[in-house]
Amino acid sequence: MSPRVLPPLPAGLVDFESRGFRTANAAARALLERRAGAFLTGYNTLRRHGVGELPFHLGPMPLDDQGFAYEGAAFAACAHDVLLGRKRNSTLDDLFALAGDRYPHLMHVGAGWVGLLAPPSTVLRRAKLDPLLRWLTLDGAGFSRAFLRGRRWNERFRRASWSSSPSHTVLHQGVGRAMWFMECADPAAIRRRIAAFPPQAHAELWSGVGLAVCYAGGADHAALDDLTSLTGPDRVALAQGAAFAAGARGAAGHVPEHTATGVRELAGVPVDEAVEWTVAAAHVVSAGELDIAAYRQWQHLIRDRAARHV
C-alpha cells in the first residue's frame, strides 16, 4: 500500500490566524509559520513520493527548515505503518535508515504525532526506535494535540488532574513547545498560559518552551531577556530544553545563529558545551534499562549541569 492512502495536509493547517494563534509579532509569525510549513512539506512529500525521493525534494530546502520537514515525513511514515499494522520492513525504518543519523530527535518527535490517530503506546510498541530517544514520541504527541486540537482541547488538558507519572510530564513538555508557536514567541503570553497550570507542571512546560526557542527560533533580544528572568526550577528546565535543541541541531551538522544565541542566553554556555551535557548525561543513564524513568533521569542530569550556569 502506498503512502498515498494518507490524506494530504493542507497549507491552511499552519496558518496562525485561522488557528486562532497570536499574530502580533509579524516577524516571528512568518518564521514559525515557515517552520510549520516545512513540516507539512515533509509529510506531503513522503506521502506523494515515498522515502527514496525525499532527498531530491527536501535537499534544496534551507538547512534551518529540513529538520521540520523530516519530522513531518516521520509522521507520514509512522501513520502509514500504523494503518498497515507493520512492525517489520516499515516505512519508518526506511526513513531512519535514510536520515536518522542527522535528524534523530525530530524524527522521533514526528513519529509521536501518530498519537493523533492512535494511543501513543502504539508507536512505542510497533516501531524500531532509539532506546532513549523513543520517549520523545510522547513530546510529539503533546505538541500535536496542543497545536491541532484547538482551544477546547488545551483547556481540558490544563484542567486535567496533575499526574507525576513520567509519561504525563513528557506530554507537558510537548505542550510547552507548542506554546511557543501558539503564542507566536511572546514570553509574557506564555507566562500567563503556564501560570494557569498546576505549579508542578510549570518546569516541564518551560522545558518545552526552551527547546522551541532554540530550535525553531523567533526570539528577539527582548524575548530572550524576558525568558532569562525566570528563576529556580523553571530556569534550569528552560536551559535543559535549550540543551536538547543544541543536541538536535548539532546532530544535523548545522547550528543556526539563532540556536547559538538562544543556547548561550538560556543555558549560559556555548552550543558545544550544551551538547556535551546531553552526551555525558546519556552515558550515565545508558548503563541501565532505558525506560521512561531513565529518560527523565537524563533530563534531570542535564538540569543539574544547567543549574551551575544559569
UniProtKB/TrEMBL annotation:
InterPro entries for the chain: DUF1702
Family matches, as Pfam families: DUF1702
Protein name, per record: DUF1702 family protein
